């Protein structure tokens, strides 16, 4: 007889767990077939040429990357952990200086690998002065505003220099410039200095010794300091002054005298000017003087090129005034300026050559030019970045490639169902009519017209047969006709053709992804064509925060979305903007009802506070769009959008009597309200309940119910055929807080209608200071993730809470209708599981009818997305040997969540910075669509219960067709024989 120890039994159960764990792995041949991944770098701040084939950029996302100049592909990228302050590229590599923590790093420009790293002590910080780097790999960085350190190509200190400190040293700023073999350290005096001077220390770059000191006198009220070539410029009241940085030789001119010959001379206010020149090239002898001023139409910028002669400043090219300045760059001895010349083009001026190049660009799609970099002068290669985060690369023939980097900064995304083709057939056939035409239409003529349309449709029948026969050898779920490369899908939409009309496929796998970005763009992507952009919109002065689908596609009515963002009102104050858009074309949606046209303006800006925005489950009767409710906490008022007479009447009759909601303020306290009608039909809130956090507690996170979630069953069938009935409360949510005592975390399940606490638990020894807490909610359960410092076990944990109507089996609430005001306390089952990874965000799959089991999706800081079947987070998983009833219920033995790579939806992809994961059902109950965004964007399909409602990829449809055909032929051949035999048998 073989004895099995407890340890052996545990290992056996763990081995069985790895066998039965539901996996979401795919075959190698399926990678990239149904999913797509777009690699982004963010909005570039600066670009530098590496070689003829590559440029290096650093972006607002603290990323340095190398882009291919021929295609725009990301060759490599490095995502820095801390804030990037400085970026300098040379032939030897790329130097970056970042803060919090203070770190200087040198990178290989060919492959992006780290060569060396130089760090500071906790008491030191890097200075604001731009570092210097040489082609031999050596560099100079500033520490604070008193010290310079030269580093070797291995990152070791060669020398350090510290200037004499004074009482004002901590407040003074310095600039570090390289001129030949010398380093110039210019100390700018503080305001109200008793003896203000620009102190210039000239150092030998080889030894760090001071070779010369120059003091350039100035007035205490100096302003607008700029460094151009070997000169320093500044203003004093109405004077523009300048001097060589290596000698005391101050010259000045009245600003009014300098610009007196310009048409906009009166606009050059000394307080509003800007001096733009190249501080890196000692041979620079010109700069641009610009001034910003206000007109009746808005803000404009006037600018002029100024040449520096021996003892005077001479005006050169006058650029006139434009609404924006555009972009400026310096290339060897040339100055390059690109500025919008019309709504559809911009002009790049190359000076002093006097060459102007006009390039076509639709600025309504991209926003104004934000940055330009000339990569080559002959032949022309120009790198352009716009305010809407569109990245474009031009040559003299036009656009070479583009990247829609606004998608690296998504604020909100929604899936949009596409219309069925038959809907649009009907619309073209008979519904494109006015009300009077419909009333006067003869029924016979209408029938004849429809019959004619259907007869004409039969012309497509042969093609339909041929396409289906050809399609038998391919995948049922893959659209191979519309294949698009990843680089093409990442390109900006240029509005060179009208957006194509999209239709839903047979399985509902093709949808539109509508993303609203913080850079003011709204982008629509086709999920079935590698995420190709179908249309995009840029809205000036908008930073979007939310997007809502308020009307799905219907007969004669296109889908409508409402994008909401922060903007400015007519006088420049903070406002909230609402934008109504036709989701199929990206154009402003104009109401088709004359009676409600004034209430359906496509763009609306309001100064009311938008502390909470709610999409209501009722539609306005005129446009059939869902209403939005906006809560303003300061006034305690609620507004509905749109606020037409018909919409308000329906809202008051059908929804107002039972309109309850809750709101969490900035301190984490919760309050519940009922909306009532006030003076003259206004809507106000009445407090129903309030939950204040105990002293010392801080809110960490709060869950939200899944929108439009379908629940297939109201109970859970057990192995003994009994049922545990789910506690399905649409108003419950989880509030997780940090306790007053160290290491304490509290979890409360609450009802948002009456504010009652349905369940409360406390976790101790939890690290909530350095590790984030995340929670997801669906149906009757919650799953949350945190770090535990407890000894058994220390590490990441996930806890599941599952709520049922009663503690006993078959126990159910007697009432047929659920009400939050009923005194029902749910029974909660809970269990904790060790989890192998930290988490950045959580999501859950959603299927058409909620029959399939769910996958809980985890965004990982390792740039992966992990999908774990809900069965793994079952609080009823047996901790002992599973009984027959447990086996009947298919319960998995208790154990930690396995570190199994097959659970990664992203397989080997590097999906960086995932901050949001959303899901949408397809028409296949087995399949959910998943989209993740953050830095990168990733789309895939998830089938937690396998694809039980579709034929497998290796199923031979041709063999099935041949079998059916053979049976038909066999019946046709043998049928007469059998009949003759029967007749002959009757004659015998």
UniProtKB/TrEMBL annotation:
EMC1 first beta-propeller domain segment(s): 25-405
Keywords on record: Endoplasmic reticulum, Glycoprotein, Membrane, Signal, Transmembrane, Transmembrane helix
Main location: endoplasmic reticulum
Segments crossing the lipid bilayer: 960-978
Protein name: ER membrane protein complex subunit 1
The keyword Glycoprotein belongs to this UniProt entry's keyword annotation: yes
Transmembrane is among the record's keywords: yes
Location(s) in or outside the cell: Endoplasmic reticulum membrane
Residues covered by the ER membrane protein complex subunit 1 C-terminal domain: 778-987
GO biological process per UniProt: protein folding in endoplasmic reticulum
Membrane topology summary: Single-pass type I membrane protein
Signal peptide: 1-25
SUPFAM superfamilies, sorted: Quinoprotein alcohol dehydrogenase-like
Family: Belongs to the EMC1 family.
Superkingdom of the source species: Eukaryota
Subunit annotation: Component of the ER membrane protein complex (EMC).
InterPro entries, per database record: Beta-prop_EMC1_1st, EMC1, EMC1_C, Quinoprotein_ADH-like_sf, WD40/YVTN_repeat-like_dom_sf
GO CC annotations, alphabetized: EMC complex
